[in-house]
Each structure stands twice: as structure tokens, then as C-alpha cells.
Amino acid sequence: MRPTTSLSLSLLSTLLLLPISTLAAFTGEAEADGVKFDFTQLKTHSVVVEHKQDPSVLKSTYTINPAGKIELNKDDKEDQCPDGTQVCMISRLWHGEKPDEHAAQIISFGNVESPKDSEPEYTIMRDEEKKVLGLNITFHGPEYGDKKLKQNAIVKFLCDQEMTGLEEPDKDGKGTNALKFVDYEGDQTLTLEWRTKYACEKPLGEAPAPSQGSWGFFTWFIVIVFLVVAAYLIFGSWLNYNKYDARGWDLLPHSDTLRDLPYLIKDFLRRAVNTFQGSGGRGGYSAI
């Protein structure tokens, strides 16, 4: 059965919002109160909202990158948010199937590269039973419009175990978008909801998933040395067997050296001990 994840405004008002801290820039990771959030697997995501303004339609595209800045569109240098923006709104009027040449509105709600605009505040959302419902992030943007209204974007990352957070409708509008527009209150405060399994509770001590990466240099070195030694012993044994009709220890190449190896090591250690012992005691002086 699919867990209930929809939150009404009345329920949200009863949530226990536990403050975590303030960051210079939100890079997709946060941890506090025994809970760790990691949204770095999420990619830049957008949601489009239409408002009818007869005879035209105003289409507003809300874009967010939870792990950093939104990449600039090299083909459209004018109608886009400033470099470093994390949450961006671009509105454009459409007349039938044809949009205006330039955007009607371009609003930035947070910038990872500007100290003034890159101090997002975030809080853990919990219900009355202390269950984690997600992470609430508030991005602060610059002033906009004739009234110089300070822009803010509230992004609610909601726990949904059945959604990765990358879902979006196809070209025909079929499918569910993980990112949802909620409100743009007073032309000042934007609210978005993003449903994802990465917003669910994850204890700090939880073991990471096994790595699927390739072997390191040291591992490959050990494997190669082992294969070389094995090939040397097998080829040498085969050669001694066919050429000298050897048996037992005599099959191994340099069998005499291998048999004497324990005695050689013992003799080396005894000489080393005598050397260290001889260098102390009398400080280099000998009896006359």
C-alpha cells in the first residue's frame, strides 16, 4: 500500500520545524538531530505553470538545482537568471502556439556565488509523533519589481519512498512530476514541493551502499605479482619435470635456494642483531 505523503496546509501548520543551521550555500547535503539528507542524486528539475491572460497565456517555468547553481543556456544569453542561481523563475507570454521573443519576468531566488543571496535556511519537518516528513529549505533572493520586494523561495523536500525525485511528465503531459508548484504569494514568496525518497529519514550511522567501483592500484599490483609468481613456478616445475625428470621439491625452480631460505633468513637476522648490539655499550671503544 502506498504510504500517505500528501500534506495539507492545516497539517503543515502543526509540524514541528526543528532548525538546523544556516549555510553559505546549499550543496544538496545536510545533517542534524540524528538525520542525514543527501539530495546530490537529484538533478536540475523544472515545473511549468500556466496562467490564462486572455487572449494570451502566461507560462512560468520554475527551475531548481538542489546541489548547486543552474547551468546557463549558451543559446539564450538574455532570458535567463544570473550565473550562480539555484532557484529561477522565467515567465513568458504565449499567443496561441507562439511565445513572445523575450521573457516577461526573470526572478532569481538564491545565488551560490553571492554572499548576500546565498544564505539558505533549512529545517527538518516532523509530525506530532516526531516522524521525519522531509526537509524545508528557504532560499533568499534579491529585491524585484517597482516595490523592491525581497524574493524568497521555500522548497519543501517531502519524503516519498516510491519516488526518486526525477519523475516528470512526458511531452503529452502524461506522468507525475516530482516537483510541484504550490504558490507565489504576494509576488514575493515562492513555494515548491519536491517529493523524493532522498527526503526520508536516514540515520547518521547507516552503512553506505557497497561500492561498485573498480579495483585500486594496490589491489591490481598484488594480483599481477601473484599471477607472475604462479606462472613462474608452474612453468619452472614443468621444465624441470620434462628436462630433468625431477620429483618433489626438485620440481620447483631454484629448489636448493628455497630449501636454504629459512637458514638464510635466520643467519640474516642473527647478523642484524649482532650489528645492533655491537654498536652500543662501549660507545665504539674497545679494551686494550
Automatic annotation (TrEMBL):
Top-rank taxon: Eukaryota
A GO CC term assigned to this protein in UniProt: mitochondrial membrane
GO BP, sorted A to Z: autophagy; protein transport
Any Pfam family the entry gives: ATG27
Topology class, membrane: Single-pass type I membrane protein; Single-pass membrane protein
InterPro entries given in the database record: Autophagy-rel_prot_27, Man6P_isomerase_rcpt-bd_dom_sf, MRH_dom
Domain MRH: 22-202
Record-annotated membrane-spanning stretches: 217-239
PANTHER family: AUTOPHAGY-RELATED PROTEIN 27 (PTHR15071:SF13), MANNOSE-6-PHOSPHATE RECEPTOR FAMILY MEMBER (PTHR15071)
Name of the protein in its database record: Autophagy-related protein 27
Species per Swiss-Prot/TrEMBL record: Arthrobotrys conoides
